[in-house]
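FAQ: What does a ligand-bound record look like?

Like this one, built around adenosine-5'-diphosphate:
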Amino acid sequence: MINNNLHNKIDNCIAVVSGKGGVGKSTIAVNLALAYVGQGLNTAILDANVWGSSIPILFGLENHRIDLTSVHSKIIPVEKFGIKILSSCFFESPEQNNRITGMDASKALLKYYFEAEWGEIDVMIIDMPSGAGDVLAILCDQIKPNKTIVVTTPQKLAFSEAHHIGLMFNNEERKLPLTGVVENMSWFSPVEDSTQLHYLFGKGGGQVLAGLLETKLLAQIPFAQGLAQSADEGKLLTYAQNSITIPIFHKLAFDVLGED
Ligand code: ADP
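The answer part, i.e. the structure of the complex:
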């Protein structure tokens, strides 16, 4: 049995990690959350990207602020599309967040995780910072997520860095479970002809990474036209409900909870 530190109201905590930024980690985290909500589960997202956060934009919550100035203030997550969300961007301006140290960022994130009024949560997804920084290490050690998904593109440049991140989890010291690898932007198919597959970032990197980390390749997600634009506009829900990626995310969501 894994010795995780999930508090008693959070049944599952999924860390979504990557080596490089820009491989689609936040996009996967949010689409996975939408899939869980669609499956009727109480779902939450903690945005752990204090520097360069995408979650508020993806949810159209860039200007949302939570005021904690009163001593009686409670940390109440924001709810959007049925998902409970917390991000340090709801508390501090981007300029203030840019000045925060790794130690202070970790403290704030642990406070959001352990002290916020999340209610009963079936699945908490943590959108971790890219790369192997202190924040990732501290959150892993304190929270001990019971599921971890490593996101990469098929490119060697992406999966070789993701390999090091994966090893931060399933090493002798931490022994945190690696649930599997998700390969994003695996290919591109034009809308006019979905039989044509263009391998924009090469082929097979996700499988190679899964082999290196002795885990599974859980999913391959194609480059989806319209995803980037809907993300910028905070319209991911509308997009996710009409996208070719829906069945992939639903299967991924189901498989992740099924894996131990
Ligand atoms: P990360 O969290 O790894 O930095 P993001 O989730 O912010 O990456 O994604 C980086 C960019 O790629 C964004 O513009 C996003 O909209 C786009 N993107 C991610 N995954 C896909 C995909 N499968 N199809 C099309 N665009 C994608």
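Follow-up question: can I read anything off the structure? Yes, for example: The pocket of adenosine-5'-diphosphate is lined by residues 18, 21-27, 54, 130, 184-185, 221, 223-224, 227-228, 231 (CB under 6 Å).
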